[in-house]
Amino acid sequence: MADFRSALGGLADPQRHHEPLDVGGTDTAVLARFLESMLTIRLAEEAIGALVEEGLAKTPCHLAIGQEAIAVGVSASLRRNDRIFGGHRSHAHLLALGGDLDGLFAEILGKASGLSRGMGGSMHLYAPSVGFQGCVPLVGATIPIAVGAGLACRLDGGDAIAVCYFGDGAAEEGVFHESLNLAASQRLPVLFVCENNLFSSHLDILLRQPSDRIARFADAHAVRALTVDGNDVLAVAAAADSLARHARSGGGPAFLEAVTYRHRGHVGPKEDVDVGVRRTMSELTLWKRRDPIGRLAGAMLAAGMIAEGHCDALRREIGTRVAAARAFGETSPYPDATALLGAVFREQP
Amino acid sequence: MSAATETGYGEAICLGFEYLLANHPEVFAIGQGVWSPWYVGNSMTGLDEKFGRHRVIDTPVSELACTGAAIGAALCGYRPIVIHPRMDFMLLAVDQVVNQAAKWSHMFGGQCAPSVTIRAIINRGGEQGAQHSQALHAWFAHVPGLRVVMPATAADARDLLVASVLSGDPVMYIDDRWLYGRKSVLGPVVPRPLAGEGPVVRRPGRDVTLAGAGYSAYLCEEAALQLAGQGIDAEVIDVRVLNPFDPSTIVTSVRKTGSLCVVDSGWGPAGFAAEVIAAVVESPDSGGLRRPPRRVTLPFAPAPASRALESIYYPTVETVVASVRGALHLEKA
Questions:
Q1: Considering only residues 58 to 97 of chain A, which have any Cβ-Cβ distance to chain B shorter than 8 Å?
Q2: Which residue has the higher pLDDT, B82 or A201?
Q3: Bridge partners, A192 (sequence order)
Q4: Under a CB-based contact definition with an 8 Å cutoff, are residues B293 and B262 in contact?
């Protein structure tokens, strides 16, 4: 994969960074939370993939399997009063904040008990109680919205920040550049998080941009930026902590680029190695060896922080919760017909 | 002559801003040129000095990001007004207007809605050409979830701005530079819910119903005065609120007059005038129409620059009068 034009070098090279994480110096309880959170996202999304394969979910489901470390690492620096926005691939962003599994499954199944009352589906999730202010699939659309949330945070006068997750494709939208410039010129407390998975839909980043390093745009707009291995939850957490503190303390916006790779296709549960321009099974196999969960679990095992069999037990426990969430979604009622027109306008005469 | 002081439309907008900024700390204004009379005429004069540049924010040349930022702040409890000094340039922000502001309430099950006011100024004439001239209200009247208002009088310029900003929904407020000199006597501000506002009869009449929004409503009123001198008693309806559009006032009027002429500052095809006519024709007995309805709209061409062409491009009072006489089969009278 390492390309002669790759500015990311080893970060984009699937032959690198397979080793277990360096967990020395990190509190075991923190590591255990990261592991459980990433596994929860993984198992939830595998179950969502099954709903798609079984034909029960038709809503376009964009899975972040393989990318879990980013949402989990970033969320470790966030607080309940921060304002977090996502995009089309946001199940992980929601769950990493502690978003409700039952509500997520019900929403994906189009049920009235869903996070968006069954009106949104997979790509429109809403959970303000955990700080998640919404996600939408129009590429880059929540980036300026997060900038406005950052403006609100500043007008509020506290130290809350706004956060926006987006992919490498969003950097090709004009609004991305407008938003970085606006946030920088107004010195707004916004953390931009680019999950650079090296593909936008089917198309390789180096067939879309002259460089694969998205943080170069942050440099251009005088926004403090860090680029990290997005499959290393500790690297993500450390960078996010530093950047969030910068934004909270009045330093202006900050930009985190986390390099990763999705195991599944752009949409749906298939591994999608045939329609990609350069995505091959051998490349995917290499990337799976850089799996963020395996690298953390392996390190914790090697360091004696968890016992052999811990992950299996954890999987069973989480699997039970996920199965219950699926059952909740399946048994919940659909929205009433009045929902069709009921919330088009909020103000009634 | 009344002893009461009259206020112009542009100044009335400014009074609306002053009321909102003074009484609602969650209100702020953001947009290009809001510190400059070059962009916004006299409609925002002195607001930045009076209320501070943290609440009256002039911006980079980024319609899309600024509109999105206003929506984002609105989702966090603020009531921003994002200003587009020319509606033509606002097209760069359409994703945020149509896909975001208008849809968040519906697609999140009514749990949130951006209380944002998107102010679009129609600024045309003066040989400004095709990209400095458009009145595109019909596009936005098509979109569920977005309220659209077009004040025609100074009183409405102030009061519909206040109602828009205090609404729980996203609102596009469209004002017209050609109306900035139009004057009304203004009473004190009495906020009213926007959801309760709709078309009003500006002038009662028996012979024909004239309807329009914004500057077109003004044309209708002026045309009615001329028609009165010719023995034709026109009823004038100022549409005011285009989305959601309540046609009942117009339907009631047409049932009385039997004739309808709709004036619009946009184009005819798939335009707002067609929507008004359709609403009448769809009502029982075709709305009581005794004659085919008429539309007065722009020629189906972008705005010209040359004054020679401009003078025949925009509808005038005379165009409206001629159309009404045509509708009533009085052409040769």
A1: 83, 85
A2: B82
A3: A164, A255
A4: yes
Between CA A120 and CA A59 the distance in angstroms is: 9
Determine the Cα–Cα distance for residues A302 and A311; give it in Å rounded to an integer: 13
**Element (DSSP H or E) covering residue B47:** helix B47-51
Q: Do A117 and B107 touch (CB under 8 A)?
A: no
pLDDT for the residue numbered B103: 98
- CATH 3.40.50.970 fits domain B6-193: yes
ipTM score assigned to the predicted complex: 0.96
pLDDT in the model for residue A125: 98
Q: Which residue of B has its CA nearest to A139?
A: B95
Residues of chain A with pLDDT > 70: what percent? 97
Peptide bond into B284 cis (omega under 30): no
* CA-to-CA dists, residue A310 to B39, B94, B159, B262, B315, angstroms: 66, 51, 66, 74, 78
CATH topology of domain B200-327: Rossmann fold (3.40.50)
Residue whose tokens read 């060896």: A289
What secondary structure, in 3-state letters, does A114-148 show? CCCCCCCCCCCCCEHHHCEEEECCCCCCHHHHHHH
Q: What pLDDT does residue B3 have?
A: 63
- Cα atoms in the Cβ-side hemisphere of radius 13 Å centred on A337: 0
Q: How many CA atoms lie within 13 A of B306 on its CB side?
A: 3
3-class SS at A93?
A: helix
Nearest to A230 by CA among A40, A39, A8: A8
| Same fold for the pair B6-193 and B200-327 | yes
Domains of chain A, start order? 26-333 (3.40.50.970)
Instruction: Give the residue carrying structure tokens 């009615």.
Output: B224
> Whole-model pTM above 0.90?
yes
Domain extent listing, chain B: 6-193, 200-327
Residue-level pLDDT at A72? 98
The per-residue pLDDT for B331 is 58
B137 is catalytic: no
The rounded distance, in Å, linking the Cα atoms of B224 and A21 is 80
Phi-psi sector, B57: left (phi>0), alpha (psi -120 to 50), beta: beta
Does the pLDDT of residue B316 top 90, yes or no?
yes
Q: Which of B21, B24, B64 to mutate to test the interface with A (most CBs of A within 10 A)?
A: B64
pLDDT for the residue numbered B333: 42
Q: How many CB atoms lie within 10 A of CB B308?
A: 10
